[in-house]
Amino acid sequence: MIRAFDTHKIRRTRELSGSLWEFSTLPQEGEPVRLKMPVPGCWQNEPETLTYRGRARYEKKFAAAGNVRLEFKGVSHTAQIRVDGETVKEHYNAYTPFSAVLKKLPAGEHTLEVLVDNSFGPDSALHVPNDYQTYGGITRPVALEELAGQYVSGMHFTSALRDGKWHAAAEVSVENLEEIPFEGSLELRLDDQTLACLPVHLEAGEKAVLATPQIPRPDAEAWSPENPQLYLLSAILYGKDGGAVDDLIDRVGFREVRTEGKDILLNGRKLSIRGFCRHEDHPQFGCSLPWSAMCRDLSLMRDLGANSVRTSHYPNDELFLDLCDETGMLVWEENHARGLSEEDMRNPNFERQCEDCIREMIGAHYNHPSIYIWGILNECASHTQYGRECYRKQLELIRSLDQTRPRSFASCQFKTDICFDLVDVVSYNIYPLWYHDTPADVYLKDLYDWVQKDTGGSGKPFLITEVGAGGIYGYRTPEKVKWSEEYQAETLEKQLSAILSQEGCSGVYIWQFCDCRVCDSWFSVRPRTMNNKGIVDEYRRPKLAYATVKKVFSGAGKEE
Ligand code: ADA
């Protein structure tokens, strides 16, 4: 399953995943392991490759003719795509989608090879040994699409409130794969109503972006957490003779996010965030969670009284975002980076890999109404001049790609951050009573008062993007010592009560929803080789803190 709805009615598509592919490790020494490997999936799910880190080869035969587009939703973490022995695409980053267009394939059977590498090293600036696992494999779905001579390669939908009335605008990318010019037209439909018709003229091989003006939609029903109203937006490309050539369908919503003073407003109403940070991680599936497991995670978060999820620390599977759109779960989505020092940020690949991630994230996820904010560079060097330059460039890149959403980053630089003038929302990760003993209310007030001084963050919305404590599932003790479920529950109660009563604070994300596996170099500071700050453990079994959080979140006001 690739998306929660059909993305084409005219273009013929099929899923290449949902099957077993030929697989072989490519070890530096020793014999390769050969298997039939489930795709999508992580090779750590198989007993023979449970701990393998390195290079591997996947192979799948497919029959096709003509122009073909292969879409990969995620390969962890570096991919080289070969068709019939020829490299057609290279891609870095486990968490962003990419595609390859193959022109005029001869009819018959073809061989698709995916060379995957999940090793760490100087070439990889973002996938580093970290407080979460970097799995290996084709971890998200793969689709094959048969393209005509021209196709719709992308579409961004923007809704806006003007004088209290909804307006819609779209930008649609089209491409001519042929060596002769193309004349035609493009129809945009919202559910079954025509929104706009645009003439299309493409020179041989040309790519173009067609834009509609702002179109009034006074009857549109707004998307909100309480009423997540969605519309199907179809872009249909017609030839000169009026015959349909290609189409692209996405799901969109009418909603507006902006900041005003210290508030984040959704459709003009103040948001009060009660959320969870979540890693894509599960003992049975690795980072390759099936749809039903994603649904279950969202059901538990809803039961806990949450209205938001933070996709820490990378762009998520689009199917999960589809579910957030459908269920009204607000999303903080961020690019892929966690805890990188200035030295890490000076890796010559860092800037390019971050920028690629941002472009691919916003390119693919722009239309999700549930995403209300973009984040970057979790807990990196936002206290140094070099770091500031990286933050500035990436935040500006986001603004050039999306003018409609606020931007932020989760800082851990206690009273030393120098980047708050660059963002729309100031965000902090704090761990009072876990990594230090200062009472939560004292620590938070001190931090908040400092932000209101000359930091560039004064008067802006303020979010706590992480707070939490470790609790090992099943470890119960009347002494309520650290790592016990009791200590975790009590600590969270104190932390949340301080945060939710802090003046000027727009809300909180708990670190974290579920326990997750970490990389080997973190084992000495992570009991059970897991980050144990989940409110549920890795199998989603509730800890004592579940009831505590549910009580606090259900009691706190939703949107005011
Ligand atoms: C950080 C970080 C998280 C996690 C957390 C923790 O704030 O952003 O990824 O590592 O700390 O558990 O210490």
TrEMBL record:
<comment type="similarity">
    <text>Belongs to the glycosyl hydrolase 2 family.</text>
</comment>
<protein>
    <recommendedName>
        <fullName>Beta-glucuronidase</fullName>
        <ecNumber>3.2.1.31</ecNumber>
    </recommendedName>
</protein>
<dbReference type="InterPro" id="IPR006103">
    <property type="entry name" value="Glyco_hydro_2_cat"/>
</dbReference>
<dbReference type="InterPro" id="IPR023230">
    <property type="entry name" value="Glyco_hydro_2_CS"/>
</dbReference>
<dbReference type="GO" id="GO:0004566">
    <property type="term" value="F:beta-glucuronidase activity"/>
</dbReference>
<feature type="domain" description="Glycoside hydrolase family 2 immunoglobulin-like beta-sandwich">
    <location>
        <begin position="151"/>
        <end position="255"/>
    </location>
</feature>
<dbReference type="Pfam" id="PF02837">
    <property type="entry name" value="Glyco_hydro_2_N"/>
</dbReference>
<dbReference type="InterPro" id="IPR006104">
    <property type="entry name" value="Glyco_hydro_2_N"/>
</dbReference>
<dbReference type="GO" id="GO:0030246">
    <property type="term" value="F:carbohydrate binding"/>
</dbReference>
<dbReference type="Pfam" id="PF00703">
    <property type="entry name" value="Glyco_hydro_2"/>
</dbReference>
<dbReference type="InterPro" id="IPR006101">
    <property type="entry name" value="Glyco_hydro_2"/>
</dbReference>
<dbReference type="GO" id="GO:0019391">
    <property type="term" value="P:glucuronoside catabolic process"/>
</dbReference>
<dbReference type="GO" id="GO:0005975">
    <property type="term" value="P:carbohydrate metabolic process"/>
</dbReference>
<dbReference type="InterPro" id="IPR013783">
    <property type="entry name" value="Ig-like_fold"/>
</dbReference>
<feature type="domain" description="Glycosyl hydrolases family 2 sugar binding">
    <location>
        <begin position="45"/>
        <end position="145"/>
    </location>
</feature>
<dbReference type="Pfam" id="PF02836">
    <property type="entry name" value="Glyco_hydro_2_C"/>
</dbReference>
<feature type="domain" description="Glycoside hydrolase family 2 catalytic">
    <location>
        <begin position="258"/>
        <end position="554"/>
    </location>
</feature>
<dbReference type="InterPro" id="IPR017853">
    <property type="entry name" value="GH"/>
</dbReference>
<dbReference type="InterPro" id="IPR008979">
    <property type="entry name" value="Galactose-bd-like_sf"/>
</dbReference>
<dbReference type="InterPro" id="IPR036156">
    <property type="entry name" value="Beta-gal/glucu_dom_sf"/>
</dbReference>
<keyword id="KW-0378">Hydrolase</keyword>
<dbReference type="InterPro" id="IPR006102">
    <property type="entry name" value="Ig-like_GH2"/>
</dbReference>
<keyword id="KW-0326">Glycosidase</keyword>
